[in-house]
Amino acid sequence: MKNHINFKFIVLLAVIPLTIMATAPGGLENIAQSIRSGDAKQVAAYFDKMVEMKIGAKEATYSKAQAEQVLKDFFSKNKPLNFQFNHDGTSGANNAYYAIGTLKTDNAKYRVSVYMKKNGDTFIIQELSIENE
User: Fold this and answer.
1) Which CATH architecture has domain 2-132?
2) Exposure string (b/e) for 72-92, b if CB count within 10 Å is 16 or more?
3) How far apart are CA 36 and CA 67, in angstroms?
4) What residue spans define the domains of the chain?
5) pTM, to two decimals
6) Which of 129, 132, 131, 125 is nearest to 48 (CA)?
7) Interval 92-130: pLDDT, tens
8) CA distance 39 to 76
9) Is 16 left (phi over 0), alpha (psi -120 to 50) or beta?
10) Residues 125, 106: Cα–Cα separation, whole Å
C-alpha cells in the first residue's frame, strides 16, 4: 500500500503540470491554516467517509472520526510551528487534486501530501500522508 500511495503522487507530479495556488480548491487554504494551527477537527471537516492515512511508518484506512483522532494524536506529539503547501495540481481525468507541503513542528520537519477528489462542488480528502523529511 505504501508503494501505491508514493507511486500515485510520483505519477501525478511527473505527468500533471504544477499549477499555482489560485487554481486550488477553495478549501485548500483552510486546510493549510488548520494544519498550521494543529486543528485536527477542522482538517477532518474535509475528510471523506473513509480516509487512507500514513503517518510515519504507520499506514491504515480509517473512518472520518478515527482519522481525526489519529491526526489529533499526531498534533499533540508534534506541535505545528509552520506549514505551507509547496506544490499542487489536478488530474482532469478523474476530478482529482493533490497538494504537497512542508510541516515544521517542535520535533521535526515533515512532508505532507493530500490527495482529494471532487464530490459535487467540493473537494474531499481521501488520502493524507505525513512523512519525515
Assistant:
1) Roll (3.10)
2) eebbeebebeebebeebbbbe
3) 18
4) 2-132
5) 0.79
6) 125
7) 767 899 999 999 999 999 999 999 998 888 889 999 999
8) 10
9) beta
10) 25
> How many CA atoms lie less than 13 Å away from 48 in the CB half-sphere?
19
CA trace torsion 45, 83, 94, 46 (10° rounding)? 0
Within a 10 A sphere around the Cβ of 6, how many other Cβ atoms?
14
Q: How far apart are CA 62 and CA 79, in angstroms?
A: 22
At a CB cut-off of 8 Å and minimum separation 6, what does 4 contact?
none
Those residues of the chain that have pLDDT short of 70 are: 1-26, 93
Strand partners, 63: 50
> In whole numbers, what is the pLDDT of the chain averaged over residues?
86
DSSP state at residue 24: S
